[in-house]
Specification:
Layout lengths: L18 E4 L2 E4 H8 L16 E4 L2 E4 L17 E4 L2 E4 H8 L16 E4 L2 E4 L17 E4 L2 E4 H7 L2 E2 L6 E2 L4 E3 L2 E3 L18 E4 L2 E4 H8 L1 E2 L6 E2 L7 E4 L2 E4 L18 E3 L2 E3 L1 H4 L3
């Protein structure tokens, strides 16, 4: 049985010696340190029971060794961060790893609000309109020549005005006859369908989709009565104030195509020479 004043490990008497209680068991200093003390992460020396043991995530340091690996300032009672198991004060960590503000070029400190756009970062107050200098925050903005503008300032300084509605064009418009239009304003004068991205034509300075133009102005085929657009290089036959689609210019009796061939007329009909012999 261990005496009350004997070391729980080596059994040496503790009378007149320093000792430490651990879970109600007394230990001499040497035994306590061999059993329960840790080695310092920096100097590898034992952290004795008379020294202050600083620990973080199962790692231990002497108080004099608990320093920033960059500036070597003490981290006692100071916030710190880690990177690849290295301890750093927040200033060094921010300078080394935090984003830099695109406007003022200073570090955006961890924990502060950061604005980001297309790979660039700003302090909240630095993310401001280049014209009025007011912070943009989460409002809509336009970037031009690497500068940011709130929509009202961009419209005043850069945006063209639609020739139709006289309002600024802030996103993809249409240019027709050197004049700017909103896509939604550039429409067929007849059916009001948007013309951006599709074929159209004009007459008397008005734009028309092909269907409206043909219905309003194109000649009608003498055979099928539908419009002959003549647009895009399409071919047609014209004879004595009448027109036909190429496919419609056929003999009335045998339906043979008469394109590039001789033909006869009988009243309003056109006939191939063979069929025309009977008349």
């Amino acid at each position: 049985m261990v005496e009350p004043y004997n070391c729980a490990k080596c059994k040496e008497t503790l009378y007149g010696k320093k000792f430490i209680l651990k879970e109600e068991q007394p230990y001499c200093v040497a035994c306590y340190e061999s059993l329960f003390s840790f080695n310092c992460e920096v100097c590898q020396a034992l952290i004795g029971c008379t020294s202050k043991d600083l620990s973080y995530k199962d790692r231990h340091w002497h108080s004099d060794c608990f320093l920033c690996t960059k500036c070597e300032r003490s981290l006692l009672d100071r916030p710190f961060a880690t990177k690849d198991d290295m301890l750093m004060c927040t200033d060094c960590f921010a300078n080394e790893y935090s984003a830099k503000c695109h406007a003022c070029l200073k570090t955006i400190m961890p924990g502060t609000k950061k604005m980001e756009h297309k790979g660039s970062s700003w302090h909240e107050n630095c993310f401001a309109c280049n014209r009025c200098q007011q912070p943009i925050g989460t409002k809509s903005f336009v970037q031009k020549d690497f500068n940011n503008y709130c929509l009202p300032c961009y419209e005043k300084q850069f945006a063209q005005q639609c020739i139709h509605c006289k309002k600024p064009i802030t996103t993809g418009g249409v240019n027709y006859r050197d004049q700017p239009w909103h896509k939604e304003c550039f429409v067929c004068i007849g059916c009001k369908q948007q013309l951006a991205g599709q074929r159209f034509t004009s007459r008397d300075d008005f734009a028309y989709c092909l269907d409206c133009f043909c219905n309003l102005f194109a000649k009608k085929c003498a055979y099928c009565t539908t419009p002959i657009s003549g647009l895009g290089g399409s071919k047609y036959i014209s004879f004595e104030h009448r027109q036909w689609h190429n496919d419609c210019f056929t003999c009335k009796r045998c339906s043979m195509s008469l394109v590039g061939r001789g033909f006869l007329t009988c009243k309003d009909d056109i006939l191939c020479p063979d069929c025309g012999k009977d008349f």
